Amino acid sequence: MDSVTRATLCAGRGIVGNADQGGRRQVTIIAQQAWQGAVSDLGVQVEPGARRANLLVSGISLQQTRGRTLLIGGCQLLIRGETRPCERMDEAQEGLCVALGREWRGGVFAEVLDDGEIEVGASVQWSSKSAT
After folding, report:
1. CA atoms within 13 A on the CB side of 106
2. Which class is 9-126 in CATH?
């Protein structure tokens, strides 16, 4: 996982240049507050990159958001479901898999609905439109 400040999204595919393209799991997203809760439960500091998610967002909750549309900058991402943490989390920190397994702390996976650019600091909010 390489940290970048800008990425290009392609509708129906995901992040341009990402290894996984297409399908329902085009982009994975974690919420900073949920991540902090998980590592706080463990009493350790672990960088969010250990989660191996594509995007880290703040200021919103991702819990129970299947079917909602998230707006990041000018791009729409349809939340398809919860990303369940795997045993690789415990390679980064013992107990992290269990800590992330509660309350959607492991994040969500989404489908990209339109092409566009996103960057660090872009606005993040829920769409008021119903999912299609």
Report:
1. 19
2. mainly beta
Question: Looking at the predicted structure, is the pLDDT value of residue 130 above 80?
Answer: no
Distance of alpha carbon 62 from the chain centroid: 9
Q: Which two tokens stand for residue 76?
A: 């729409």
The answer for residues whose C-beta is within 8 angstroms of residue 39's C-beta and 6 or more apart is 45, 46, 93, 96, 99
Q: pTM score, two decimals?
A: 0.91
Coil vs helix vs strand at 80? strand
* 132 pLDDT above the threshold of 60: no
Domain boundaries, the chain: 9-126
Q: Which two tokens stand for residue 42?
A: 């463990």
Average pLDDT over the chain reads: 92
